[in-house]
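Hi there,

I know you've been waiting on this one. I reran it after we fixed the sequence typo, so this is the corrected version. Both the input and the resulting structure follow.
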Amino acid sequence: MANTPSAKKAARKIERRTAVNRARRSRVRTYLRKLEDALTAGNKDAAVAAFKAAEPEIMRAVTKGVLHKNTASRKVSRLAARVRKISA
């Protein structure tokens, strides 16, 4: 348990940031789930649309510090390859 006033404030801030980051991470996962559903269904148009929506959301998570840059790039690259494969 935090004892000093600054430690108590830090604990409050961490709690708020954790809630925000959890929401951001959840939002990214939702977009990825929609894309995954479109890919497994084999729906080309839905997959392309879902990818166009998911890619900026993933990169936004990077700028907000939720995902690491390389992790996001790897995810986007692999998803783009899968979308390209279904489109061909």
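Quick highlight: The longest helix spans residues 5-41.

Best,
R. S.
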